[in-house]
C-alpha cells in the first residue's frame, strides 16, 4: 500500500520536538530548533474518505471491490481462540502470570513472543514471554532472577525511581531494538507533564539504554504519551503517539512521524502527520494508544477511546492509505471491541500483530472495574472488503 500525505497542507506550529526543561511546577518544553519541523503541526481538516485506489471498506464501490478481489492476496488463516493460562497475580519468574498488565505491546523474535506493559510489580518495563500466546511468564535472568531491562533518561522526574513509565512500544529498527515510553518530565498546572523517551537494545529482552532527546510538547498540559514503534512493509520505521490536546483549543489526537534508520530519533527532514482527532461520542474526552499494522495489503490503525478507568473504554479502528494517512474510521465509526460486544470490561490499550497468517490484537480489560487490567488476545478476520470482524475476543 502506498503511503500518502494528508490532503491539507500542514503548517508551522509554535512548539516542537525539544528537550524538556524541568525545574519544578509548570515546567514546559523549550522552543524548536530552526532545522526542525514541528512535533504537532497546526490543526487542519482531516480526510473523511480515502483515495479511490485504496481499499476503503464501507466506502468502496462494487467495481473497485471486484478489481481489488481479482488481485492476488496472501492467504488468511482463521485465528484459533487464545485463552490466557495461569491465575497468579504475583510477578514470579517461571510461573504463569495473570496479574496487572495494562497497555500491552507485543513482538516476536526467535520463536518467542515478548509482551511489554505499563509499569507494574515495581518494574519500569515489565516483560512477559510466551511460546504459544497462552502461557506468559516474567522475563528472567539465566539464574531465574527478576529483570527490569530498561534504563530511564536523566530528564525523567519520578519519585519512584522511574517506575511510572506508561504504555511502552517496542520494535526492531535497523540492527537493534527501539523501546519507547512515556514518562513525567515535570508538572504543569499541578498535573504530570509527559514526554516520550527512546531507548535502544540488542534484543527484545534489552537491556535498553537511553538515546536521543526527549520528545516533548510543552503547550499541552499533559504532553504526549502512548508511543508505538511501527516498521512498515518497506522496512521504514515510524513512531506513533497520542497528543493530549490543548484545553479549549484543540482536542486529543493521534500522530505519526518517520524515525531514522537506527531508531534513535526522527528522520532528517521528516514531518509529523495527524491521523485521527477525537470525534465520536463513544470516544468520550480522549482517544489514545495508537497501534498500526499492515495485513494483506491494508494499513490499519487501532486506537482506544474514553476513560481507561471505566467500562466505557473501548477500541476502534481505521483504514489508512498508508502510514502517513489519510485514515478513515470503520465499523460505522463505532468501536470494534467494547464491553457490550466482547463481554470484557473496558477492552483497550490494544496492539495489533500478525500471528503467522492471522491478524490479532493483544489488549487489556478489567477483571472488575478499578481492580486488575489483565491481558487478552483477540482474533480478527479480514472481510473481502478489507473491514474487520472479531472472531474471538480472547
UniProtKB/TrEMBL annotation:
<keyword id="KW-0326">Glycosidase</keyword>
<feature type="signal peptide">
    <location>
        <begin position="1"/>
        <end position="21"/>
    </location>
</feature>
<comment type="similarity">
    <text>Belongs to the glycosyl hydrolase 43 family.</text>
</comment>
<dbReference type="Pfam" id="PF04616">
    <property type="entry name" value="Glyco_hydro_43"/>
</dbReference>
<keyword id="KW-0732">Signal</keyword>
<keyword id="KW-0378">Hydrolase</keyword>
<dbReference type="InterPro" id="IPR006710">
    <property type="entry name" value="Glyco_hydro_43"/>
</dbReference>
<dbReference type="InterPro" id="IPR050727">
    <property type="entry name" value="GH43_arabinanases"/>
</dbReference>
<protein>
    <recommendedName>
        <fullName>Glycoside hydrolase</fullName>
    </recommendedName>
</protein>
Amino acid at each position: 500500500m502506498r503511503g500518502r500525505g494528508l490532503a491539507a497542507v500542514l503548517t508551522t506550529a509554535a512548539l516542537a520536538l525539544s528537550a524538556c526543561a524541568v525545574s519544578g511546577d509548570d515546567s514546559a518544553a523549550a522552543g524548536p530548533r530552526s532545522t526542525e519541523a514541528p512535533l504537532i503541526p497546526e490543526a487542519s481538516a482531516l480526510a473523511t474518505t480515502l483515495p479511490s485506489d485504496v481499499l476503503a471498506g464501507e466506502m468502496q464501490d462494487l467495481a473497485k471491490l471486484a478489481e481489488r478481489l481479482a488481485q492476488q492476496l496472501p492467504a488468511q488463516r482463521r485465528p484459533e481462540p487464545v485463552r490466557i493460562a495461569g491465575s497468579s497475580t504475583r510477578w514470579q519468574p517461571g510461573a504463569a502470570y495473570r496479574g496487572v498488565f495494562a497497555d500491552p505491546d507485543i513482538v516476536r523474535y526467535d520463536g518467542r513472543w515478548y509482551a511489554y506493559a505499563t509499569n507494574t510489580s515495581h518494574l519500569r518495563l515489565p516483560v512477559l514471554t510466551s511460546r504459544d500466546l497462552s502461557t506468559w511468564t516474567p522475563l528472567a535472568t539465566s539464574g531465574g532472577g527478576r529483570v527490569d531491562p530498561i534504563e530511564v533518561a536523566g530528564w525523567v522526574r519520578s519519585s519512584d525511581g522511574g517506575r511510572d513509565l506508561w504504555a511502552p512500544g517496542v520494535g526492531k529498527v535497523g540492527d537493534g531494538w527501539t523501546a519507547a515510553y512515556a514518562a513525567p518530565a515535570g508538572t504543569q498546572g499541578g498535573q504530570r507533564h509527559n514526554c516520550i523517551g527512546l531507548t535502544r537494545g540488542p534484543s527484545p529482552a534489552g537491556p535498553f539504554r537511553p538515546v536521543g532527546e526527549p520528545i516533548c510538547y510543552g503547550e499541552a498540559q499533559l504532553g504526549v504519551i502512548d508511543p508505538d514503534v511501527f516498521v512498515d512493509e518497506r522496512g521504514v520505521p515510524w513512531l506513533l503517539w497520542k497528543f493530549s490536546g490543548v484545553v479549549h483549543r484543540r482536542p486529543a489526537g493521534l500522530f505519526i512521524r518517520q524515525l531514522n534508520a537506527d531508531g534513535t530519533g526522527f528522520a532528517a527532514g521528516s514531518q509529523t502527520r495527524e491521523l485521527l482527532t477525537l470525534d465520536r461520542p463513544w470516544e468520550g474526552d480522549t482517544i489514545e494508544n495508537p497501534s498500526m499494522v499492515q495485513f494483506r495489503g491494508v494499513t490499519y490503525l487501532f486506537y482506544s477511546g474514553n476513560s481507561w478507568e471505566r467500562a466505557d473504554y473501548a477500541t476502534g479502528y481505521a483504514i489508512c492509505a498508508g502510514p502517513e494517512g489519510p485514515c478513515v474510521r470503520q465499523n460505522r465509526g463505532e468501536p470494534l471491541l467494547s464491553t457490550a460486544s466482547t463481554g470484557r470490561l473496558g477492552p483497550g490499550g490494544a496492539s495489533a500483530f500478525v500471528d503467522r497468517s492471522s491478524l490479532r490484537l493483544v489488549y487489556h480489560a478489567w477483571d472488575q472495574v478499578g481492580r486488575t487490567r489483565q491481558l487478552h488476545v483477540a482474533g480478527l478476520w479480514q472481510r473481502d472488503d478489507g473491514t474487520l470482524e472479531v472472531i474471538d475476543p480472547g
